[in-house]
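step: validate -> pass
step: tokenize input -> pass
step: predict -> running
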Amino acid sequence: MRILMVMLVMLLGIWAHADLKSERLVPPPPDAEKSQDPDPDVAIEGVEITTPEDQHESRPKYFYPYLSSLSFVFGGTLSSPEDGSVVSYGLFGASYLWPSSTARHIESGAEGFASGQSDFWTSYRVHWVSTARVRPFWSLGLGVKIFSNRGLASFLEFKNFYIRGAVGFEWSFWNQLSVRTEFFACPDFSGRGFLAATTGISWGFE
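step: predict -> pass
step: emit ->
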């Protein structure tokens, strides 16, 4: 009887060992393997994959900071003297732009002509753009012609006064220096006048 009991216990132990071993050798189901290894082609929900955009460094915008300027110009003129003819002369001049923090300025200047005539004028000048590299403007003012043979007596003759209308521009090319070009028409109070064009250098300062 004892021998039968020992043999029964041994058979139960062998059967239990074989059953545990068989459980360890059973491969996992195919679905389980797929669930463990994510498909790389499937996008992860809620995550957006983007590439960084090209970032270009923007150039600083040019700013003209000067509130006034001193200009030196030269050019030519077509005028109609009292005899009704049309003559041409060279001229040179200088002008001062009075300080202003706006696009509106007062400008005063003087010009000398090869004919011996000199002019003094003051204008109200407005810039369409006052802080850019290229600054177009227009101006309107009043001037007087001074003749060498009459001197200061020229101020006493009303016909020597004229209206000065002009358009032009300045272009900054280096620090405070700008090229200035201007075209102006000047009808006087005698019914005549002159046309002129000038170019030169403008020096800006605060």
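step: describe -> The chain has a mean pLDDT of 80.
step: cleanup -> pass
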